[in-house]
Amino acid sequence: MKELIIHNYYHQLFLFFFVIHFIGGDHELVVMGQNTKQVVVEEFKVGVVLDLNMSVSKVWLTSMNMALSDFYATTPRKRRLVLHVRDSNRDVLDASSATIDLIKNVEVQAIIGPMSSAQAIHMVLLGSRSQVPIISFSATSPSISLSQNPYFIRTSLEDSSQVNAIAAIVKAFGWRTVVPLYEDTEYGHGIVPYLVDALQNINTRVPYRSVFPNSASDDRIVQELHNLRTMQTRVFIVHMVSPLGLRIFEKAKQIGMMSEGYSWIVTEGLGSHLSSFNSSVIDSMQGVVAVRPYIAMSKELSSFGVKWKRKFQKENPDVERNLDILGIWAYDTVWALARAVEKLKSANVRFSKGTTASLNSSDVAKLGVSQIGPELLQGISNMKFKGLSGDFHLVDRQLQSKTFQILNVVGTGAREVGIWTHSNGIIKDISLVETAKSTYLTSNKDNLRPIIWPGDTTNIPKGWEIPTNHKKLRIGVPVKKGFNEFVKVEKNSDSYSGYKVTGYCIDVFDAALDKLRYAVLYDLIPFQNNDGKAGSYDDLVYQVTVQKFDAVVGDVTITANRSEIVDFTLPYAEGGVSMVVRVKKDMSKDTWIFLKPLEWKLWVTTGAFFLIIGVVIWILEHRVNREFRGGPHPLYQWGTMLSFSFSTLVFAQKERVLSTLGRFVIGIWFFVVLILTQSYTANLTSMLTVQRSDPTYSNINELIKYGSPEEFDEAFSKGTIKGGIDAAFEELPYIELLLATYCDKYMMVGEIHQNDGLGFVFPKGSPLAPDISRKILSIREEGKTQKLKQASFKSKISCSNKDAFASSNSLTLSSFWVLFLITGLCAAFSIIVFLIVFLRENRDILNDSNSTIRDKIIDLLKKFYEYDENRMITYFECNPACNEQNKVIVNGDQHAAETVDTGDSPPRIDNSPSIASFGIVTPQNGNFNTARRNSTTLNADYDIGYFTATSESDTDFENSTPRDSDSVSDVRTSALQHLMTHDVDLQGHREFEEQ
């Protein structure tokens, strides 16, 4: 029994020394199992370089240890990772020294770490020299070139992979300027070129870059933040790691930069650690939008999180931290390395020592070369499996992921507001990945859930503000001599600049600002020197580049040269240059051309004078001329009056004017009518024969620009003979105003030389320019610019309302007013003379003391309407044959018989032959004088000779003679009896008719 005990004692002692031998000599470890079953497990040394004085390093170490436990707890393994941890002390040299120590002294086959990209840059050189893979899940800077460092493996996402997600957020809210804030390290600088490129692709400018040293004091941070406050931009992208990033937000809150109007976006450097920050840190970041890689929640990850929390609190009871994304990547990194080591085919895990290194060589020269390094590098690079973070898949030795989570810091933590993917852009939920069709360049803010912005508001920050050192924008305006409808500058002591500026350009600018969702205050400042002399438009634009003006509002033409130094809005007025010439209308096809020779005022005046002259002639003639007495009805006289009046237009009046005053008036009127008709005929002929003229100038250099519509008109009026012009060359907006002013005189012809039109001027990259451009498009689509133009040009836009008869070639009333004045004065003079004579002849009525005024007026009107028997004038018409044959011998004397125009023949007497003519009037004393008769009876002092001719007779009037059986006395007696018997009314008989 005692010998058995001694045997067992030596046997166990042998096993103890055997194990010690394998541990010291990197041999396999023999593990004794139950029933003396032995399993040999090879130890695989792995170095870990972290900043152990940082609490986050403890988070990652816990994850790595749990990965080892979970990996080796499932199935038996032939190799086991042994972690050798070193502290880099947050220093590049210490990290390098730790690497040298691990490779040279411990002979690790791989190194996990370091924390920072600056440390990794030096460590990867050592790894490449020794063929030891350097695996990092936290060195994310793209400044570390994987192609130049073949033994560097990144099991996390490169920082540049998130810039498109950030640009999508900026584009979604329409921000045009962004300022990045980053730390002055490899990590901070590495992302900047990629971020700027991504922002430029969406037309967003980076006017300034704010860089903070890692060791920046609080005063340095506050000073830089105050500098940012004085700028226009209010959108900031923070690319830092804690604790520097957290200090930035703490100071930003203290100076009021975490208030309404500001927008803060943090990259993965802070976004991935949001779950680990305490309540005071979260409070200082309220309203921040964060971007971090998206890791889908799974049962495995949820279970791991619970176990990790329990283990971490047990190991670090004094540290309050939560599992973050880098902790998950640390777990997957160790798992991937363990799987790659397990699959190694080579059993040679030793280092080969160089023979050329001397005793005085440095430690780097004394580093050995791993014999298994190339195979291990290849195994990790090709590793694919389902990890806690999702699909673990390295492409070119780098983890790939195209999905990012967008978070909003609000309340006590961060909540998801959207997802960004490379192929789908911004979407509200990951479940929409398969159905969304947009890309990040067309992302829309509506695809995000509501965001609580700094200042605890849902109002979207506009992205810029007027700087605190500029309360209002200083906007320059041109001082113009002409075309003031666009911009008009007047002195006004009540305004800031001492001037009042109005016009179409100002109205359009105000209309665009009214549509913005934010207010813009400005002062309009005329661009002129101390003497009041206006500067040129090129000089005005240049003032924006030297920051004398914040913008220029006016009729500034968009040109290529100007756009090189400033930004223009979209044009608010049509662009182009064309030619203007005089209008010569082709009237030959106009239906109403016969009315065109005279303007409507002249037509109306002429018509009125026709009526006036007709009335005047009737007044002067109706008492002495039976031609103006008319027929049995009073309206007959109105017809006579009107027909006489308008028949004078063609000199075809039927009635004769017999009174002296009437002939005086009608003579003057005939002269006026002659001039009017000849002028009308000449102008109508011109309109029918003269065609629209074609321009004779086609060279721009031959034409001169003018400053106002009035200058154009004056130059055209002079013509080339007097130093004027026949054509003008001008921009379309000014041509439009010219044509509005003189629409009937000028026209635009020829080719339009295109340009971009009129726009507003802003500095390069101004955030206001694109906003104003969008609003200009909006008001143009609504037709508001046209309404504003009509309001500004209201004193000019009258051509469209002119009478259709009006024409630039029409004769106007101003050309003939003297003739109408003379005619009116002559007519008035004649009427006055007539009334004086009339009242004098009837003064007995006026002097009648027994009559009232009313009776006197009635008597005068009756007298005015009656025949004037003392002045009645008649005339006779007879052809020469009649004058020779119609002779009557009375009392033995032969006298020339004068026929009386008695009008229509009297009615037949029973069955007597029709009367061919009658009317030989003789006085009782036998003298033939001009006969007069009133409307009802024959004067007793006159006898009438009566001739008859039967209708059956072959003889005509010229051959008719008194019947032989009738004496002259019998004829007179018979005629008088006939007229008295049949009550013949001789008033309407006028023309002597022959049968």
Structural class: alpha/beta
- Biggest sheet strand order reads 8-7-9-10-11-16-17-18
Weakly predicted, low-confidence segments: 1-37, 356-360, 436-442, 698-703, 800-807, 874-969, 975-995
Total beta-strand segments: 32
Distance between the termini: 190 Å
How would a crystallographer describe the biggest sheet?
A: 8 strands, mixed
Strand content: 15-25%
Structural overview:
The longest helix has 30 residues, at 660-689. This protein has 28 helices and 32 strands. By secondary structure, it is α/β, with parallel strands linked by helices. Strand 16 (403-410) and strand 17 form a beta hairpin. The chain is 37% helix and 16% strand. The strands form 9 sheets. It has an 8-stranded mixed β-sheet, with helices on both faces. Strands 1, 2, 3, 4, 5 and 6 form a 6-stranded mixed β-sheet that branches. A 5-stranded mixed β-sheet has the order 22-19-23-28-24, sandwiched between helices. Helix 2 (55-72) runs parallel beside helix 12.
Features:
995 residues; alpha/beta; 8-stranded mixed beta sheet; 6-stranded mixed beta sheet; rod-shaped; disordered N terminus; disordered C terminus
Task: Provide a short characterization of the protein structure.
By secondary structure, the protein is α/β, with parallel strands linked by helices. 37% of the residues lie in helices and 16% in strands. β14 (384-387) and β15 form a beta hairpin.
